[in-house]
Amino acid sequence: MEMRCKRMQCRKTSDFIPRINPGSSMDYLNRQPFTPHVRSSYTHPKPFRLHTSARALSRQLYDERKRIRMDLRMEQLASDWYARERSEFFKLRKMTNFRATPNPWKQTRVTTGVGSQGAYK
Q1: Is residue 27 part of a domain?
Q2: Within a domain: residue 9?
Q3: Could you tell me which of 120, 91, 98 has the C-alpha nearest to residue 108?
């Protein structure tokens, strides 16, 4: 049994073949280490355009149009309120004046002429 173990150990050491993936490159072993290169110590900004003046003008025009719309709406609401109050006032005023209304169940005289005999007395 001892000989058998020795043979297995010998076989294991002698049969060892390093597995290298042929598809991968091993040139990293021979390369120089990475050293970063600094090209300049400051950045060069690109020119830019701000649209603040155009935006301010468009906002001012929008605010003016909105104010005009709000004024028209407030005038419309005020005129509607005035018309409602006025119609309610006239309705209440009309209700305060008493008018006698004829009784629909009361019999009235029907006259067909002077001295007629068919009149109700």
Answers
A1: no
A2: no
A3: 120
Give per-10-residue mean pLDDT for the chain (121 aa). Answer: 63 61 65 78 83 95 98 97 96 83 78 59 47
Determine, yes or no, domain membership for 117: no
Q: How far is CA 9 from CA 4, 5, 18, 19, 84, in A?
A: 9, 6, 17, 19, 111
CA geometry: angle at 55 spanning 49 and 56, to 5°?
A: 120
Total domains in the chain come to 1
**Could you list the residue range(s) of the whole structural domain that residue 75 is in?**
52-97
The DSSP letter of residue 34 is: P
Task: Tell me the CB-side half-sphere exposure of residue 43, using CA atoms within 13 A.
Answer: 3
Burial of 121 (0-12, 13-18, 19+ CB in 10 A): exposed
- 117 touches 107 (CB < 8 A): no
The pLDDT score that the predictor gives to residue 121 is 47
3-state DSSP call for residue 60? helix
